[in-house]
Every structure is written in structure tokens, then in C-alpha cells.
Amino acid sequence: MKKLTLLLFTFLLVSCSEKERNCQDFKTGKFEFTQDINGKKHTSTFTRTENLQIETYNGKTDSASVRWVNDCEFILQKLHPKNMAEEKAISMKILFTEKNSYTFEYSFVGSNKKSRGTVTKLD
Fold first, then answer.
1. How many Cα atoms are found within 13 Å in the side-chain-facing hemisphere of 72?
2. I need a labelling partner for 43 at 20 to 30 A (CA). Which of 2, 14, 20, 121 fits?
3. Which PROSITE patterns does the UniProt record give (predicted)?
């Protein structure tokens, strides 16, 4: 019985721990995002300032405005959309941070379909 109580107490302590969210550390800088698409890794790099994000993916560079909603959430809006899909704003929410990376959730504004990813800060 004591072992069961100790195990339950340990489980409660571990499950109640809150993940770190130092979002301020990731508002600006140079970053890398790698994702798996159809079994192939695709990597993009981007530089973000308080109001602008410039991203390079597959040799193409694009820019978007950044509007911070709060310390851990922001909206990306492409500055020069090439089609209707690119005109949609993207909502980004930093879920938790680590030393040089953060895990985020994103979706098109107004959409319920959300995806997750992890970004690494390069500088």
C-alpha cells in the first residue's frame, strides 16, 4: 500500500509540472524549421524582428508582417501573396520553450484545423 501511495504521489508531482514558456527569448532572431512532407525533410530558415519575418524555403525568399497578440501568440500575414491561399493570415502560438527551441501550434485564422511544429533558434 505504501508503494502504491508513493507511486501515486510521484505521478501527481510529475503531471502537475508546468512546461517552460520564455516566449520573449524567441520574439526576434534567426531560426530554422524542419518538417517532414511525404517522407522527405524540408527545411526553411527565417529571420524575425518585432514586426517582420523574412523566410527562405527551397531557394525562394518571402516576407510577412508579424503582429504580436501577446508574449506567446502572433499573427503572420504575407506581404506579397501570389494566390488566394497565401492571403490567409496564420495564427501562431508558442506552447512551450526549451533552451534554444520552441514548440508551437499554428492554423489559418478562422480555421479549427491546427498543426504543431518545433523551431530552433540559430543565434
1. 13
2. 20
3. PROKAR_LIPOPROTEIN (PS51257)
- Percentage above 70 pLDDT, the chain: 85
Catalogue all structural domains in the chain, each as residue range(s) with its CATH number: 20-121 (2.40.128.20)
Nearest CA to 88 out of 100, 78, 97, 80 is that of 78
As given in the structure block, the three cell numbers for residue 93 are 502560438
Distances (CA, A) of 25 to 10, 55, 89, 92, 113: 31, 19, 23, 16, 27
Q: 59 in helix, strand or coil?
A: coil
Name which residue leads in pLDDT, 4 or 23: 23
**Beta strand pairing status for 90-97 and 73-78?**
antiparallel
Quick one: cell of 3?
Answer: 508503494
| pLDDT (0 to 100) of residue 122 | 95
Distance separating alpha carbons of residues 95 and 105, to the nearest angstrom: 7
